[in-house]
Amino acid sequence: MIRKTTPEQAEKVNAAVDGRILHLKYIFYIYPIKSLKMRYLLTAGMLIICMFTNLEVMSQQTDNDVLTIIHQRKSVRQYQDISVPEDKIETMLRAAMAAPTARNIQPWQFYVITSREILDQLAGELPYAKMLSQAPLAIVVAGDTPKGNPNEEQIHNWKLDCAAATQNLLLAAEALGLGAVWTGVYPYKARIAAVSEALDLPSHIIPLNIIPIGYPLLDDRPKDKWDAEKVKWVE
Ligand SMILES: Cc1cc2nc3c(=O)[nH]c(=O)nc-3n(C[C@H](O)[C@H](O)[C@H](O)COP(=O)(O)O)c2cc1C
Which of 38, 50, 152, 167 has the smallest number of Cβ neighbours within 10 A? Predict the structure, then answer.
């Protein structure tokens, strides 16, 4: 009946359902009222309140539905000149750190850059991240490569783990009404050197990407990438 998406939404749904039941409970108090007109009026009022509570719940379910956000996400490369509040930055970082990681090692570090000077410097040095000069914020997702004492095969896992974190971060940005784009740093030596130097990173921390983030300037649209040809059924 009710599709739950997040615990917060489930909480709201439950609260709203409780609210509706509470509203309807008062119907019993209406019956002793002698005036028929008054009874109709109060019953109609209560039903309207219930209807609006229901509509609010439905809109919360669809606005933040995880599949809607996945399909709405797109690379956004132009931003308004407005800074991103810290609570939204934390929400994105929390989403990033909720990603799955091999052996649950969480081999990452996140660098939150709001320094205009550093953003502009990196815009000048990274050929495909010029939009940093317009962005009020960027987050570097970097691998803490020795974390978890990886063996020869596990040594590559940080890239996969950080990629999963990056996707979560991008989805959170979308859900918060922000625009963001993954710009590649790893595996390009010159880009890794530029970011490492700008952020003074120790050699075991390797930047995977840098994500400029801001409020979208334009009305960017997601691409439709569905391709049935790329699906092979094994039955
Ligand atoms: C590993 C990786 C590296 C990327 N590097 C850049 C980049 O350096 N600059 C850029 O503008 N976009 C970069 N992108 C974004 C892609 O261009 C974008 O995701 C792709 O065109 C699909 O568009 P969409 O994100 O709107 O679906 C990168 C994406 C990935 C996954």
Answer: 152
DSSP state letter for 176? T
The residue whose C-alpha atom lies closest to atom 10 belonging to ligand 1 is 183
pTM of the model: 0.78
Confidence label for 43 from pLDDT (cuts 50, 70 and 90)? confident
C-alpha 139/C-alpha 185 separation (Å) is: 12
The secondary structure of 183-227, three-state, reads EECCCCHHHHHHHHHHHCCCCCEEEEEEEEEECECCCCCCCCCCC
* Distance of CA 26 from the midpoint of ligand 1 (Å): 56
Task: With beta carbons less than 8 A apart as the criterion, state whether 215 and 88 touch.
Answer: no
Task: Decide: 19 in ligand 1 pocket, CB within 6 A.
Answer: no
Q: What is the mean pLDDT of residues 53-81?
A: 80
Taken as a whole, the chain contains a residue count of 235
